[in-house]
Amino acid sequence: MRQDLIVILDLGSTQNTVLAREIRALGVYSEIHPHDITPKALRDLPNVKGIILNGGENRVVDGQAVEVCEELYGMGYPMISIDYPQSKCATQLAGIPDQDALKKFLFQDCKAEANWNMKNFIEDQTELIRQQVGDKKVLLALSGGVDSSVVAAMLIRAIGQQLVCVHVNHGLMRKNESESVVKVFRDELHANLIYVDASERFLDKLAGVADPEQKRKIIGGEFIRVFEEEARKLEGIDFLGQGTIYPDIIESGTKTAKMVKSHHNVGGLPEDLKFQLVEPLKQLFKDEVRACGVELGLPHDMVYRQPFPGPGLGVRCLGAITRDRLEAVRESDAILREEFAKAGLDKKVWQYFTVVPDFKSVGMKNNARVFEYMVIIRAINTVDAMTASVEKADWNVLERITERILAEVENVNRVCYDMSPKPPATIEFE
Predict the structure, then answer these.
(1) Residues of the chain where predicted confidence (pLDDT) is lower than 50
(2) Is 27 annotated as a binding residue?
(3) Given the DSSP bridges, would you call strands 5-11 and 48-55 parallel, antiparallel or unpaired?
(4) What is the pLDDT of residues 208-266, one digit of tens each?
(5) Is residue 144 part of an annotated ligand binding site?
(6) Which residue, 90, 235, 280, 407, is most buried by CB atoms nearer than 10 A?
(7) Is domain 118-303 in CATH 3.40.50.620, yes or no?
(8) What CATH code is assigned to 322-417?
């Protein structure tokens, strides 16, 4: 590994990602690890230059204060603690230091070098992928989204034709999404791409399932089953490539951090997984993934396209998925994207989409009472997907979108605009 490393031990802070990003912004690589890391596990990490014990409001679990292993204090690494009263560090801080104090710790106390950049990261990951995979093949779920596209580019750089891309149409894709993926990756980029239409299979599995966590896990588990079936048709497939990124892991919870939601590629994987995972982006925040894609030479439009969750429209058709509401989500989302593009908002707004709840409201159509669904528009801006602000969209644009949705989308009589930032809300509804 070319980068020096600062280890952040999670002792209950809600600011771990803020601290990690502050350190990376100064050019030093940082990772968040659990509070009970062992001395051996710490020694096994490459190029560790210093340790930060990051305490906070969750430092007490089940009535017991979490503590680090005593041996860590005697390992010779420079250490500071933040909001962690039982620390034995010489330097104890009440909160995340301002930038000058952080610079002093990184560059004077730890003698770290500002060598964290995408070029070095890509070189490191290329070597690690080659070491891990050897002469075997990797099966990659290629949704066409930013994360999977960057992973595909990374794997092609590392192992070339040993990569087999599989695009699964699970019936929860955006309008014309699968057709676009096949056109770009198979026809234009000449990727080794297998297309699988599993729409009916996924929708049957999800029938009647309302719980968001259960839906995510069903989708994640079924994805793996589809890949296993495709792998059996091939030879030498031992690895599964995934576009897991850091927020996926963080939001799925740690020992001292509460789970926000499980991600299909973290909490939804079956225990009897028959593949070894290849996850070269799992330590990157979303903006870093995009920077990686640019460094790898991917087209700008691909790198900065709209984020799309792995479970697709399954987490935007709220509650138990029905085909009429799924179609309403798909059609209203297409209208939103079209109108935002016309207004130039597609280049300004980080993410925007529609959701359809699983309840109806009274309305009027053709002078008659109707009982139909509502469409909720979500448009947010963010840097790292950990916090988000609401886009203050132009009223005329919203009015035009509303008129089109009410006129063109069946079974809908109401359009709402979500004004909730993250936190307390999350970006997605489920």
Answers:
(1) 255-268
(2) no
(3) parallel
(4) 999 999 999 999 899 888 978 888 898 878 899 999 998 888 766 554 444 333 444 44
(5) yes
(6) 280
(7) yes
(8) 3.30.300.10
